């Protein structure tokens, strides 16, 4: 049976009948105003890693982030590799017998794009309609703030060891991450990872992200002429590069919009239903535009490949003349399903484009963009602890397991470095966050729940380790060797 989950959950009173959690809830509420102010300070720093002219701002952002965790009582340092941008590692050792939890976020942000598309200044945090707007207000400086809130709420009595890792290059490919992981492996060692860089299912409905698509893209260049020539004198016989490129790119999908590249992995998602009308509204699909592909919406979003043309280099309209274009380029972005391998998927994509190049045109590929997909079996006591924390923070609403169509390639790297650690991918965003776009915004009531859920989770993990130790001790007492 399919499970239909929609919006419109009514908020009810906070849980107050469990004394320990009630005290923690009050502690989170007490620290939130300061956390909100610190988040706004971070948003005002335009830490756009993709822009070399703003690398000083990225450093300022790292230093400001480090100061926050240092003031919270953690041993904190900036780390970086030559030519890279700074990350932050902040640590507090675990109490005896307790696990260490790695809390991940990133302080770099996407470029803000056209300021005219924003309703307010992108780097001036502005509250409007229950949301805090600004570039990075959600993705992912809210992740930093959520970690800070959980740590401050526990104060000097953190129930587990905590290592905060705030990356500075996530929006720009995490190029330094492998070297940082290798150089600081001992500092980053952990039992549980909390990756606060995903989304919840809806306002009022928490989620654990259990799968993410990977990325395999490139730039394809088509050349048909040595130089541009008069379109009237030579057109109709000599092919122009842009028309040739368009014909090639059109073969990437079948008539229903499914990806037509052979050899890619494709699977089925959960039985969670994403109603098409809700999808259209949340994605901003224009009236009358049909959706592409076949299968359920969540299959198409989470467990099937997708290909988009995200950029095109050719003569701009304003500079056009009646000339056959000799060369044209396109940036092809392909999301690959969990279970696929990025390099292999890219090979299939490029072989498809070569095989479908019209007129014998010259083809070249560059700027490979690779990121591995991720999937986790979210069963076991750590995941049960996370769901219990979420349920309590969301006033009894059961969390759901979701996939995400986007990619967070560094998770696969972290999983490879620490294969025994449980990975929890949690959300500070919601379907209307508009991450990477204009008017990015953080839903403030949901953010409060996120902060409480993380504080509760740290306590749940401490309690879990105590229960496991007690069980092991009891089993040892009953073993033949102990009698």
What does this structure look like?
With about 475 residues, the protein is α/β, with parallel strands linked by helices. It folds into 2 domains: about 5-210 and about 375-470, Aminopeptidase (3-Layer(aba) Sandwich), CATH 3.40.630.10; about 215-265 and about 305-370, Alpha-Beta Plaits. About 35% of the residues lie in helices and about 25% in strands. It has helices at about 20-45, 55-70, 140-155, 175-185, 185-190, 230-235, 240-250, 275-285, 295-305, 340-355, 380-395, 410-415, 445-480, and strands at about 5, 75-80, 85-90, 100-105, 125-130, 130-135, 160-165, 190-200, 205-210, 215-225, 230, 270-275, 305-315, 325, 325-335, 360-370, 375, 400-405, 420-430, 440-445. The strands form 6 sheets. It has a 6-stranded mixed β-sheet with strand order 2-3-7-4-8-19. A 4-stranded antiparallel β-sheet has the order 13-15-10-16. Strand 5 (about 125-130) and strand 6 (about 130-135) form a beta hairpin. It is globular and about 90 Å long. It starts with a strand and ends in a 5-residue tail after the last helix.
Characteristics of this structure?
23% strand, 13 helices, 483 residues, Aminopeptidase, disordered N terminus, alpha/beta, six-stranded mixed sheet, four-stranded antiparallel sheet, Alpha-Beta Plaits
The strand count comes to 20
**CATH fourth-tier homologous superfamily of the largest domain:** Zn peptidases
- Ends: how far apart? 52 Å
Which percent range fits the helix content?
25-40%
Largest sheet: 6 strands, mixed
- Quote the CATH topology of the largest domain: Aminopeptidase
Provide the structure class: alpha/beta
Give the percentage of residues in beta strands. Answer: 15-25%
Low-confidence stretches: 1-19
Separate helix tally: 13
Tally of distinct domains: 2
Can you name the CATH architecture of the largest domain?
A: 3-Layer(aba) Sandwich
Provide the residue-averaged pLDDT: 92
User: Could you name the CATH class of the largest domain?
Assistant: Alpha Beta
Rg estimate, integer Å: 25 Å
Shape descriptor reads globular
Side by side, the strands of the main sheet go: 2-3-7-4-8-19
């Amino acid at each position: 049976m399919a499970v239909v989950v929609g919006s419109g959950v009514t908020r009810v009173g906070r849980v107050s009948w469990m004394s320990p959690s009630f005290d923690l809830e009050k502690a989170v509420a007490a620290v939130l105003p300061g956390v909100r102010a610190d988040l706004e300070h971070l948003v005002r720093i335009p830490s756009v890693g993709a822009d070399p002219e703003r690398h000083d701002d990225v450093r300022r952002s790292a230093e400001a982030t480090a100061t926050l965790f240092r003031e919270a009582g953690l041993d904190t340092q900036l780390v970086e590799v030559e030519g890279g941008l700074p990350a932050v590692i902040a640590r507090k050792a675990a109490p005896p017998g307790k696990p260490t939890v790695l809390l991940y976020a990133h302080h770099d942000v996407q470029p803000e794009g056209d300021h005219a598309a924003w309703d307010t200044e992108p780097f001036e945090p502005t509250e409007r309609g229950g949301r805090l707007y600004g570039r990075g207000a959600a993705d992912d400086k809210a992740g930093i703030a959520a970690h800070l809130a959980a740590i401050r709420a526990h104060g000097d009595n953190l129930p587990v060891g905590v290592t905060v890792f705030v990356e500075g290059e996530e929006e720009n490919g995490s190029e330094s991450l492998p070297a940082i992981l290798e150089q600081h492996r001992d500092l980053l060692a952990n039992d549980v990872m909390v990756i606060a860089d995903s989304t919840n299912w809806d306002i009022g409905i928490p989620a654990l992200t259990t799968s993410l698509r990977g990325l395999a893209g490139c730039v394809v260049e088509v050349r048909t002429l040595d130089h541009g020539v008069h379109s009237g004198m030579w057109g109709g016989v000599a092919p122009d590069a842009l028309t040739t490129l368009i014909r090639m790119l059109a073969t990437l999908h079948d008539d229903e919009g499914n990806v037509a590249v052979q050899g890619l992995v494709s699977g089925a998602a959960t039985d969670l239903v994403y109603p098409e009308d809700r999808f259209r509204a949340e994605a901003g699909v224009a009236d009358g535009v049909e959706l592409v592909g076949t299968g359920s919406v969540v299959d198409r979003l989470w467990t099937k490949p997708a290909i988009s043309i995200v950029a095109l280099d050719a003569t701009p309209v304003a500079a056009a003349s009646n000339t056959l274009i000799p060369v044209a380029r396109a940036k092809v972005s392909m999301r690959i399903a969990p279970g696929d391998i990025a390099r292999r998927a890219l090979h299939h994509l490029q072989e498809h484009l070569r095989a479908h190049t019209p007129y014998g045109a010259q083809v070249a590929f560059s700027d490979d963009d690779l990121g591995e997909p991720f999937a986790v079996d979210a069963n076991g006591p750590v995941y049960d602890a996370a769901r219990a924390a979420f349920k309590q923070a969301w006033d009894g609403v059961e969390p759901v397991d979701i996939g995400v169509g986007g990619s967070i390639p560094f998770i696969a790297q972290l999983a490879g470095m620490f294969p025994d650690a449980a990975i929890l991918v949690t959300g500070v965003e919601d379907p209307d966050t508009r991450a990477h776009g204009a008017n990015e915004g953080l839903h403030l009531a949901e953010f409060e729940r996120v902060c409480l859920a993380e504080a509760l989770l740290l306590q749940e993990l401490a309690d879990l380790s105590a229960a496991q130790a007690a069980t092991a001790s009891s089993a040892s007492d009953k073993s033949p060797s102990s009698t």
